[in-house]
Amino acid sequence: MAEAKEVIGDDSINETTEKLSSAFLKEYVTPFSNAELTLTNLLRSQRIIIESVEQERSKLDESKASLRVQALANKVEFYQKKLSRLKMDMRNLQQKSANLKKRSRKLQNLKEQEALEKEEERLKEELLEKELIAKPLPTSK
Fold it and tell me: Alpha carbon 93 to chain centroid distance?
């Protein structure tokens, strides 16, 4: 084997090593460079897609929030209308109550007046009856 080394020589080994290294690099560096470029492109595309998805997610969140606000606004409007109707009903009931109280006072006054008139009539009749009852004449002595 030592003879083989001498036959081949150091220059030949270096040259062969150089050629093998060069061929190896040509064979594998180019695909690895292409793979690195492809991976870089993939990573960039992935970042773009992630940003796009995050933007869409934030739009969706805003949309959901907007829908919740709209639903709350609809509830507020519904209860405001309900409150207005209740206030109107309360005013109507209050007015009816006031009218009934007024009517009640009026009827009570009429009954009291009728009772007074009946009492006066009864007193007049009593006086008339007393006047009509024969009174004994005073006796003269």
Answer: 32
